[in-house]
Amino acid sequence: NLISFTQNRKTQREWNGYVLACSFFVVAMLKTCLYQYHFHVSMTLGMRIKNAVIAAVYKKALTISNEAKKESTVGEIVNLMSVDCQRIQDATGSIFLVSSRLILHVFFQLFPSFSPALSLFLALYMLWGTLGPSSMAGLGVLVLLMPINAWAAYKQRAYQMQQMKTKDERIKIMNEVLNGIKVLKLYAWEESFQSKITDIRNQELITLKKTAYLVAVTMFVWTCAPYVVQLVSFGTYIAASDIGYLDPATAFVSFTLFSILNQPMTFLPMAIPFLIQVC
Which keywords does this chain's UniProt record carry (predicted)? Predict the structure, then answer.
């Protein structure tokens, strides 16, 4: 590799260095093109699914019976066509990011892309070959973060259900106000309805703030996680190694593998809220 070439340059041919450097450039360009194609495919699929769901909900709303209309309010139908359909579109890209099975299916359909979940396992496997058992110390940090992630996912789902319930109620009242605006003006009920809508909106804002704080904490934890994994892995390797230090080849290769880990660990906290909202 390039590190070995620089360490033993006197015994290496000069053209080997140019070949290695050009190879790195070509691989980086190819990786960028494949990732862009991957996002294009996933976002296009999400838009098509969203349009199909909106059309299905709209068609169903026009044909439901009067009894069904009593159970499904206008606010719920509007939420389905606007908010929920958008969540499905957003979650489509997240599913592509976290599901290696779907990525492999797309690969066999001649859509070349890489799943961060698959990249995660491959990077850990190569780290084992580079750092040995010391890489398991970094993996232990990831395992310790899993309960935190599970708790955050549970709370986000609860907040999402609470927010949608409050939002349905607010849209229902707004629809009643708009349909009966003449009666409302006639009896001077503006302040009463305004106060009621404001109270519901304040409850919705409280739920949104809780969700935002939870997402911020989750993002912070998973942003710091790659650096903690590196610190623990390198510290364990140095402590367990006979030489007591990191040689350049091991250090640079490990940094490259850890950079591969950064992407799935960055996308994971962003993908989880989208998947929770769809489920």
Answer: ATP-binding, Membrane, Nucleotide-binding, Transmembrane, Transmembrane helix, Transport
Q: For the chain (length 279 residues), average pLDDT per consecutive 10?
A: 63 73 85 82 82 84 76 71 74 58 41 51 78 81 79 83 84 83 84 88 91 86 81 84 75 77 62 56
DSSP string of 91-107, one letter each residue: HHHHHHHH-HHHHHHHH
pTM reported for the whole predicted model? 0.57
41 close to 107: Cβ distance less than 8 angstroms:
no
Contact 103, 264 (CB under 8 A): no
Check residue 246 and report its DSSP letter: -
Cα–Cα distance, 62 to 85 (Å, whole number): 18
- Which domains are delineated in the chain? 2-278 (1.20.1560.10)
Residue 19: count other Cβ atoms within 10 Å of its Cβ: 12
